[in-house]
Design goal:
Bound molecules: guanosine-5'-triphosphate, magnesium ion
Largest sheet: 7 strands, mixed
Order of helices and strands: EEHEEHEHEHEH
Strand content: 25-35%
Number of domains: 1
CATH topology: Rossmann fold
Strand order of the largest sheet: 1-3-4-2-5-6-7
Number of strands: 7
Shape: globular
Number of helices: 5
Helix content: 25-40%
Low-confidence stretches: none
CATH class: Alpha Beta
CATH superfamily: P-loop containing nucleotide triphosphate hydrolases
């Protein structure tokens, strides 16, 4: 059984230059604005307001670092979760958008300590162009020491029939609901395995 026993907000950054010194394995949560990135971080660490979430898209505007302590069989493992601004948020000016994009690109492609990318996709909208390009983009920059995981969010919005259809299309899909806390344990153990399997 894997648990996160401690978590804390560390700091926010605008880009890679003002990010924390690297060295600790990082998990970045990325995906469209409003897909549920901040919410799933809170569900994983089991703390309601750790990462700021909101029904208004564009809530997360900086790169936010959280320290997390995993416990498995009385052993402690340290990592960081990184909450990112969403892709495709329209309600800011073009120049701010370009600046964000540049900062995010830099961070995602150059940050050494990223071990795992979690691409969140809304389980109701699985074939959006923006997600296809995010996917393509991550696959292109993925290094040998990095992994990519997909999680379908807001599973509570699907009925049984829709869930079966999703499972048929994606047999290994991780399906999660942050609000109902369904599927969160599975996501947590997938994260743990990606980061620490070799040593555990
Ligand atoms: N029903 C349901 N709603 C959810 C779930 N996860 C998140 N939400 C809601 O979706 C909205 C957006 O959630 P956030 O976690 O702020 O999304 P985000 O991806 O961090 O958004 P940005 O920071 O704007 O990029 C909020 O109103 C959440 O309450 C879920 O599993 N089920
Ligand atoms: Mg957010």
């Amino acid at each position: 059984m894997i648990k996160i026993t401690e978590s804390e907000f560390l700091t926010s950054a605008q880009g890679i230059e003002d990010s924390l010194p690297d060295g600790i394995s990082e998990v970045v949560f990325l995906g469209r604005s409003n897909v549920g990135k901040s919410s799933i971080i809170n569900a994983l660490v089991n703390r309601k307001g750790l990462a700021k979430s909101s029904s208004t898209p564009g809530k997360t505007r900086l790169i936010n670092f959280f320290s997390v302590k995993f416990m498995k069989e009385k052993q402690i493992y340290i990592a960081r979760f990184v909450d990112l601004p969403g892709f495709g948020y329209a309600k800011v000016s073009k120049s701010i958008k370009n600046e964000w994009q540049k900062n995010l690109n830099n961070f995602l492609s150059k940050r050494n300590s990223i071990r795992l990318f979690i691409h969140l996709v809304d389980s109701r909208h699985r074939e959006l162009e923006i997600d296809k390009s995010v996917d393509e983009y991550i696959k292109n920059l993925l290094r040998a020491d990095q992994k990519l995981l997909h999680v379908f969010t807001k599973a509570d919005k699907l009925n049984q029939k829709e869930k079966s259809a999703l499972r048929k299309d994606f047999p290994c899909a991780l399906l999660a609901s942050s609000s109902k806390k369904n599927g969160i344990d599975k996501v947590l153990s997938s994260i743990f395995d990606s980061l620490f399997k070799e040593v555990s």
